[in-house]
Amino acid sequence: MNKISRRRFVTAGLAATAGVSGVAVAGTLARRYGLLPPDGGGIYGPGETLTYAAQRLLMRHSLAREFPRSMISKVPFANELAPFNDAFKRHQASGFANWRLSIDGMVARPASLSLSDLRSFPVRSQITEVVCEEGWSYVAEWIGTPLIEVLNASGLLPQARYVVYFSIEPDWWESIDLADARHPQTLLTYAMNDGDLAVGFGGPLRLRVPRQLGYKSVKFITRLTVTDSLKSFGKGLGGANAEGGYAWYAGI
Ligand SMILES: Nc1nc2c(c(=O)[nH]1)N[C@H]1C(S)=C(S)[C@@H](COP(=O)(O)O)O[C@H]1N2
Ligand SMILES: [Mo]
User: Fold this and answer.
1) Which residues, at least 6 apart from 161, have a Cβ–Cβ distance to it below 8 Å?
2) pTM value?
3) For position 12, what pLDDT does the model report?
4) Distance from CA of residue 29 to its chain's centroid?
5) What pLDDT shows up at residue 55?
6) In this predicted model, what pLDDT tens digit does every residue of 125-178 receive, in sequence order?
7) Nearest ligand 1 atom, CA 81
8) What one-character-per-residue DSSP string does 13-52 give?
9) What is the whole-number distance in angstroms between the Cα of residue 200 and the centre of ligand 1?
10) Pairing mode of beta strands 221-227, 100-105
11) What is the pLDDT of residue 1?
12) Which phi and psi angles does 39 have, rounded to 5°?
């Protein structure tokens, strides 16, 4: 089957099964096309699978809405954070001069980049909304480098399927598929609005994933791991938030 007819076939199949025999059957199709989310197993599993598979198969992976400068929130809302740990405080005291982003896993050339290394990558900015699952949101300009630039520089291996990303906060880690990792608005950000990214907003380095809810935009990023399976990370659900009962795929 060529790509278009396969897509039509899958579209018809997903739509029919979702309407007629329930979401569970959609799982069969999703499995067939490798679109099972890591949290597709539990009681909400069939629903999570349908959401994720439908997004990836039926929708064009479009851009998150970008706003005019005049709509940047005057008072952006920094969500509450746990107290900073000693490792973070040491970095803060030295002006983040020794902060590193390591890139490992399924890449040809694992790397460890400083913030100034990151600033030498192509720069992109976007004015997008941070949307928390608790119901609030704000608009800000985010400045950084597309995640894919950094991944490509390390040489993604062909079997790569997910990028797992870790905060210096041990309880904060998340993952996205390669579609989101390649998405032009998925940025490793080091600046926001008119200045360096403040610690309250995730400075010195935050991964912004504007196509998903706020909890996927993890603050204080220190490590990226490229993998073909999420099974060996934590409980295998793809992130700390999925382990806490939220959806792994939180598309907006
Ligand atoms: N490391 C880390 N990243 C985090 C969080 C956190 O507590 N620690 N909170 C998340 C949640 S639940 C949301 S909604 C957003 C909030 O972003 P904001 O503070 O810019 O509003 O950050 C996300 N990233
Ligand atoms: Mo949130």
Assistant:
1) 177, 178, 227, 228, 229
2) 0.91
3) 53
4) 24
5) 87
6) 999 999 999 999 999 999 999 999 999 999 999 999 999 999 999 999 999 999
7) 7
8) HHHHHHHTT-HHHHHHHHHHTT---TT-SSTTHHHHHHHH
9) 9
10) parallel
11) 44
12) -100, 30
Ligand 1 shell residues, CB under 6 Å: 77-79, 81, 130, 132, 167, 169, 172, 201, 214-215, 217-220
Q: What is the DSSP string of 167-184?
A: ESSTT-EEEEEHHHHH-T
Q: Which of 131, 135, 143 is nearest to 65 (CA)?
A: 131
Res 57: pLDDT: 84
Q: What's the pLDDT score for residue 24?
A: 59
Six-digit token pair at 56? Answer: 């990836």
Continuous segment of H or E residues that includes residue 112: strand 111-114
Characterize the bridge pairing of strands 124-131 and 221-227: unpaired
Give nearest CA residue, ligand 1 atom 21: 78
Q: Which two tokens stand for residue 18?
A: 């979702």
Regions in the chain scoring below 70 on pLDDT: 1-26
Task: Reply yes or no on domain 69-243 having CATH 3.30.470.20.
Answer: no
Tokens 């597309």 correspond to 146
Q: Nearest 5°: phi and psi at 201?
A: -105, 10
Question: Any idea where the domains of the chain sit in the sequence?
Answer: 6-58, 69-243
Q: At 21, which amino acid appears?
A: S
Q: What are the φ and ψ backbone dihedral angles of 26, each rounded to 5 degrees?
A: -60, -30
